[in-house]
Amino acid sequence: MTAGTFSVSGQKVLVVGAARSGVAAARLLARRGARVTLTDRKPQIPDEADLRAAGVGLELGTHDVRSFENASLIVMSPGVPLDMPEVTAARAAGVPVIGELELASRWLRGRIVAITGTKGKSTTTTLVGRMLEASGMHVMVGGNIGVPVSAQVDASTADTVHVIEASSFQLETIESFRPWIAALLNFSPDHLDRHADEAEYAAAKMRIFENQRDEDWAVVNADSVEATRMTTNVRARMVSYGVQDQTADVHVGRGFVWHRTSEGDIPLLPIAAVQLHGQHMLSNVVAATTISHLAGATGAAVAKALDGFRGLEHVMELVATKDGVRFVNDSKATNVDAAAKSIESFDRVVAIIGGKYKGGDFNDLAAPLRAHGRAVVAIGEARAMVRDALKDTVPVVEAETLRDAVRRAFDLAGPDGVVLLAPACSSFDMFADYADRGRQFKEEVRRLVSE
């Protein structure tokens, strides 16, 4: 389906979920001539007056099954589960259901670079955007990070490269979404509070490749056994990258990131240009370098994009130092595997772990804590699970509040340790989201440092 063939003019379209992606989709649909209704169980949402002025009808406080069954098309926000009864009833009535990413992609004019994986998506997506911009390309970055793709449609041109972070929630509702370059960074169990099981989560991730053609590119992490296994039968041209695997097409060694070709290895980036801490962060850089190289970025532009880049907020973010103890905010480490990689990046770690459990095995943190940890401070709904899994590995104490957790962790860290917020859980038991959790952590650290 091309940007010129899809039309919603005059159609009755229902958008489900009034978070940023749903609101952007509703505005886009209204501009394209649809009769749009935006529904959300929240009784109030921001910008109600502006949405009504834009021609968007609102159904708030409840979901009316008749609106679902009578729609010509339903567009789902990624945060809304597909198994809700109203959606099931609509599908039974023959109403097509797609996601916001699928909707927006049908009107994009430029090429799509899409990046998924269990961890590292935001950093890699941001870096690819920087690298392509430094090469002089017209780039728009968004999706699961930053601006919803629906808000990019009107500015999309044939020369635009859309760099999209794609979550499993977005990918499970695609139909024709086709990236020119698609990347799978890694895979480990996650979001099992939303997906029925690990297989369903994996299937959603793999949909990023399903509409690619022979002339497209598939980028996969050779260091991830799971990602390599999952991409065995991908149709697009495969390019592997790795930090540890020296047989990867793009690999690390002798102080450089190299691209192996039939004419020998070509240097893409000096490792000295990387200013990020941890091997998993280096892996994100190598992934971004690989993707950007395929998209036409120059070596000089790749290095320029890394100049001064010290990571995203809430991702391995050094907050402050007090009495020799460093405080690091990795609130975006919302699953067990991400937390493990974070812990492995430091020594003498006191890790703040816990929150709303969403799958995974906390026992998998025992090995990195045994090698790198001093103690654990357990927080949130999952703190008893954290305690039971790790109490025989390192000392575990519990904290009712984040303020208490920061102070207990500081006391346990000693004169030369690291207090690391690496929750391995979602944030929704105590906070609005991972960013809210990270900001509150930083505020508590600053309060402690100022005393």
In short:
The chain is an alpha/beta fold.
Structure write-up:
- This protein is α/β, with parallel strands linked by helices and 451 residues long.
- It has 3 domains: 12-95, NAD(P)-binding Rossmann-like Domain (Rossmann fold), CATH 3.40.50.720; 102-306, UDP-N-acetylmuramoyl-L-alanine:D-glutamate ligase (3-Layer(aba) Sandwich), CATH 3.40.1190; 317-450, Protein-Tyrosine Phosphatase, Chain A (Alpha-Beta Complex), CATH 3.90.190.
- The protein is built from 16 helices and 20 strands.
- The strands form 4 sheets. A 6-stranded parallel beta sheet has the order 7-8-6-9-10-11. Strands 15-16-20-17-18-19 form a 6-stranded mixed beta sheet, sandwiched between helices. A 5-stranded parallel beta sheet has the order 3-2-1-4-5.
- The radius of gyration is 23 Å and the shape is globular.
Topology (SSEs and partners):
Elements: E1 12-16, H1 20-31, E2 35-40, H2 48-53, E3 56-60, H3 65-69, E4 73-76, H4 85-92, E5 97-99, H5 100-105, E6 111-116, H6 121-134, E7 138-143, E8 160-165, H7 168-171, E9 181-184, H8 198-206, E10 217-221, H9 225-230, E11 237-241, E12 250-253, E13 256-261, E14 264-270, H10 279-295, H11 299-306, E15 317-322, E16 325-329, H12 336-344, E17 349-354, H13 366-372, E18 373-379, H14 383-390, E19 396-398, H15 402-413, E20 418-421, H16 434-450
Parallel strand pairs: 1-2, 1-4, 2-3, 4-5, 6-8, 6-9, 7-8, 9-10, 10-11, 16-20, 17-18, 17-20, 18-19
Antiparallel strand pairs: 12-13, 13-14, 15-16
